[in-house]
Write a structure and sequence with these properties.
8 strands, 5 helices, four-stranded antiparallel β-sheet, 2 domains, single chain, elongated, alpha+beta, 41% helix
Length: 203
């Protein structure tokens, strides 16, 4: 009989644990499922926010496009824009082409410009040097190019300079070489990009 009592005492805690678990299961609070109406509202809100972002990015993109310092296909370096075209023309036609884009033939007046020109590895590009009556000094090392002066003689009988790597060569101005134009870059200010909505110049 004493064995049975011990057995009952040993089993009792186990049965109480089971009862406690069953009670917890009975009273456990389960979260109600989220209705499809709530998900629909969330999806609509996110879609609306995406549309607002897209609408806002449009004007910012157009402002940035208008505030670029150089036109498309031009290289920007320091305060200038440069165009290196693959079109071969006479010196005079090249000068006219640059002029039509509010630019001039490439001139090297500063050391920084010289370094930039050397880095571009230019071959057979006309320079904005004054035409000469002879081809003296052909092959001279490029240091700087003088400002273009008005020529008084017939251009077809004169010699014009072109760049070949780091040298300048003079050939008849009627020969056809590549086109190198330069012009001043438009200033870009941080406030103009952020605040201006209609910049009055195209860059």
């Amino acid at each position: 009989m004493s064995e049975e009592v011990i057995y009952a005492h040993l089993k009792f805690p186990e049965s109480r644990k089971t009862e406690n678990i069953q009670e917890l299961d009975r009273f456990e609070i389960k979260a109600p499922p989220v209705s499809s109406h709530v998900w629909r509202q969330i999806a609509l809100t996110l879609t609306f926010l995406c549309l607002l972002l897209l609408i806002g990015l449009g004007p910012l993109g157009s402002i940035w496009h208008k505030c670029k310092p150089c036109p498309n296909h031009w290289l920007w370096y320091k305060n200038n824009c440069y165009l290196f075209s693959e079109t071969r023309q006479t010196w005079q036609d090249s000068a006219t082409s640059c002029s039509s884009q509010n630019a001039s033939l490439l001139q090297i007046k500063e050391k920084s410009t010289l370094e930039f020109v050397k880095s571009q590895k230019l071959y057979y590009y006309w320079l904005g040097l004054s035409p000469r009556q002879d081809d003296k000094n052909s092959g001279e090392n490029i240091i700087s190019s003088a400002r273009l002066k008005r020529y008084m003689n017939d251009i077809n009988k004169m010699f014009c300079g072109y760049i070949y790597a780091t040298n300048i060569f003079y050939v008849p101005c009627t020969e056809r070489h590549l086109l190198a134009c330069e012009k001043k870059a438009n200033p870009v200010k941080a406030e103009s990009v952020l605040m201006s909505e209609d910049p009055d110049r195209e860059m």
